[in-house]
Amino acid sequence: QVQLVESGGGLVQAGGSLRLSCAASGRTFSSGAMGWFRQAPGKEREFVASISRSGGNTYYADSVKGRFTISRDNAKNTVYLQMNGLNPEDTAVYYCALRVRPSTATTRDQYDYWGQGTQVTVSS
User: Fold this and answer.
1) Pairing status of strand 34-39 against strand 46-51
2) Does residue 35 surpass a pLDDT of 90?
């Protein structure tokens, strides 16, 4: 069974940075692509970024492109989301997700396992 645990969320001022981590247990981590999603109050959960199994391919939502960077360390079973230039619109609960296929994906139904989420709050 796969378990995903996010960390690194918190309160930051606009323009600041945070680095989220997602630690995975289970042998399927290195065999699958990973993704980050977020859900703001009253809104649908939305795609943020995805990284392929090897780490060689990444894909970002337009809203975060150029500000966020997704990366992974398969030796540590961990995926990261470096977030720079944060603004209040980035406030949300951030979730990591794992899919058992190697390629990136942008929709929720393409992922098989989810973490519990970590809160990111950006003050103006």
Assistant:
1) antiparallel
2) yes
